[in-house]
Amino acid sequence: MGMENSTRADRPIVLPVFASVPELDPEAYDRLAREVRTLLGIDLSMYKPAQVWRRVNGFASAKGLADADALVARARHDAVLKQAFADMLTINVSEFFRNPEAWDQLVAQFLKPMLLGQLSVRIWSAGCSLGFEPLTLAMLVREIAPNTPVTILATDLDETALTRAQAGVYSEQQMLGVSPLRRSRFFNKRDKDWEARQELRSMITWRRHDLLRDAYERPFDIICCRNVVIYFTEAAKTAMYQRFCESLRPGGVLFLGATESIPNVRTIGLVPAGLTFYKRP
Ligand SMILES: C[S@@+](CC[C@H](N)C(=O)[O-])C[C@H]1O[C@@H](n2cnc3c(N)ncnc32)[C@H](O)[C@@H]1O
Q1: Is 158 in the pocket of ligand 1 (CB under 6 A)?
Q2: What is the tens place of the pLDDT at every residue in 58-85?
Q3: Is the CB of 177 under 6 A from ligand 1?
Q4: Does 276 sit in the ligand 1 pocket, CB within 6 Å?
């Protein structure tokens, strides 16, 4: 596809360093987890406490607040802060064609053979953020097979991200990964921004879905779950990969982020299939 190898979204997220991030205090953490569940609907029980604690306190400090308790107290009455708090916890950084070499492999090894050999194809973008991933899939699908019936389920925990994804409007900066040819074929120019055309959007169904709590649909030919599990505990990740395996049809493929892998993959019922792909035999 002639795209660069390293991508902006994969540069490490640099948080400001705060001299005074407190030690993890189990009682305060339990309090935080309870409040976050009530206030934001996010279940922290399957997230790594040390990382969440560091991020939350770093975020509180950046907002001029003393600690996690102060942050929660303010967020109860401040809608803008509440949203920023949720965004910080869920981290929805993403981009079109993130890790181009992985998309090249998806196309050559899995997507093209499926599109050319099957009557229809069903794909799930789990943790779709602002829609870059499902729209990347939709562009590739239409380039390979303009007429094959394809449905893409795009889900995320974060409703604000989903609302923005559904609008399908992206800034010049967000469009960096999209070539001029693809822009002219799949997007309309809207003042300074770009709007995804109906041809792509009509392939995608958007839905709020929590990977840690909600039922998984099935069957899918391809499941993309990339850069979502950074803060999940190992047990939560294993349970999730097991459920993905059950949601794949035999021959279906799970597509992970560039730095992600499944250590005990065969016990889950999947087999490695190159770079960051796992196949259900
Ligand atoms: C860093 S983005 C990844 C976006 C895209 N998959 C990519 O690789 O560019 C992570 C997304 O995962 C979502 N997420 C985090 N926890 C989740 C959960 N438990 N269930 C569903 N989505 C979740 C976040 O809201 C965020 O939009």
Answers
A1: yes
A2: 999 999 999 999 999 999 999 999 988 9
A3: no
A4: no
Mapped onto helix, strand or coil, the DSSP state of residue 180 is helix
- pLDDT, tens only, 216-235: 999 999 999 999 988 799 99
Q: How far is the CA of 82 from the centre of ligand 1 (A)?
A: 18
Cβ within 8 Å of residue 115, ≥6 positions away? 121, 141, 144, 145, 148, 150
Provide CB contacts within 8 A for 79, sequence distance 6+: none
Closest listed residue to residue 90, CA positions, set 233, 254, 227: 227
Token pair 């995608």 is at which residue?
204
On the 0-12 / 13-18 / 19+ scale of CB atoms within 10 A, 68 is buried
Q: Name the residue at shortest CA distance from atom 13 of ligand 1.
A: 127
Amino acid at 164: R
Cα four-point dihedral sign 114, 264, 103, 168 = positive
**Beta strand 248-256 with 150-156: parallel, antiparallel or unpaired?**
unpaired
DSSP 196-231: E-HHHHTTEEEEE--TTTSPPP--EEEEEE-S--TT
Ordered by where they begin, the domains of the chain are 10-90 (1.10.155), 100-279 (3.40.50.150)
Tokens encoding 192: 């300074």
d(CA 202, CA 220): 18
